[in-house]
Specification:
CATH topology of one domain: Immunoglobulin-like
Mean pLDDT: 84
Strand content: 15-25%
Structural class: alpha+beta
Shape: elongated
Distance between the termini: 132 Å
Length: about 250
């Protein structure tokens, strides 16, 4: 039975006293609640970030990919390829003066122009002639040729070289390239060198059609004429000179 003189204890008061929890002032209690709220906000942000990273990672792993390749050919078949460009010469040195097409890429393989026999017995006022032909090789692209001035071979007479004059024309066939049949073409485009010193280059190039042997008429006739002028003095007697000419070919 309860002692009537002992005051009763409110419910829960004995638990508070047992824990001996200090009573915080109202301001400090408010700050504590703010700090707890801030920590919880940061925790939620980190959790949200983790969720986002998790979603992103799963999308990357699940992505499907594909590739496409192509290759370069020609008309649906064959590899890419380059064309060709090459020229060849005929100096009429076959049997009985027949045509022989050949390549003369350097001095050692140069074709010999067959001047008339008087070329070894020149006198002032004498002109000698030599025909030749030029064309592109089979399958070659079109191009043009530039004739350079002559070069005197080692041991030759510089005096004779300086005295001689030469003419080069195109469109004059073999039969017309001779002392009895030669005449200077009326077309200026066919006159490449006219009575110039041997070191003089041609004034214009020689055009060549593509695929030279494919059809008649693609070979270009060229006629050389060399003259010892009537003004040549005694210093040109008993002299010899071996002459080389070079054509520079260019793709059209």
């Amino acid at each position: 039975m309860t002692d009537p003189q002992t005051p009763s204890t409110p419910r829960g008061a004995d638990l508070t006293n047992a824990l001996d929890m200090p009573k915080l002032p109202a301001r400090r209690a408010g700050l504590g609640r703010l700090r707890a709220s801030s920590r919880w906000a940061k925790t939620r942000a980190l959790l949200a970030g983790g969720l986002v990273l998790g979603v992103g990672g799963s999308v990357t792993l699940a992505a499907w990919t594909d590739t496409e390749w192509v290759w370069g050919g020609t008309d649906g078949a064959g590899d890419m390829a380059t064309a060709s460009f090459a020229i060849e010469q005929n100096v009429w040195n076959g049997t009985s003066g027949a045509a022989v097409w050949r390549d003369g890429a350097d001095e050692a393989n140069a074709g010999q122009l067959n001047f008339t026999v008087d070329a070894a017995n020149l006198i002032p006022g004498k002109t000698v002639y030599a025909p030749m032909q030029l064309r592109t090789k089979a399958g070659s692209e079109a191009g043009s040729l530039q004739l350079n001035g002559a070069v005197l071979a080692s041991g030759g007479s510089q005096t004779l070289f300086d005295a001689l004059r030469y003419t080069v024309v195109t469109g004059v066939a073999k039969a017309a390239c001779s002392a009895t049949n030669f005449s200077l073409p009326t077309s200026l485009s066919a006159r490449h060198v006219v009575e110039a010193t041997l070191s003089t280059p041609a004034t214009q190039p020689i055009p060549l059609a593509a695929d030279g042997p494919s059809s008649a008429g693609n070979a270009v006739d060229v006629c050389f004429a060399i003259t010892l002028p009537t003004t040549a003095d005694n210093t040109t007697q008993d002299k010899t000179a071996k002459l080389f000419w070079k054509y520079d070919a260019t793709l059209a």
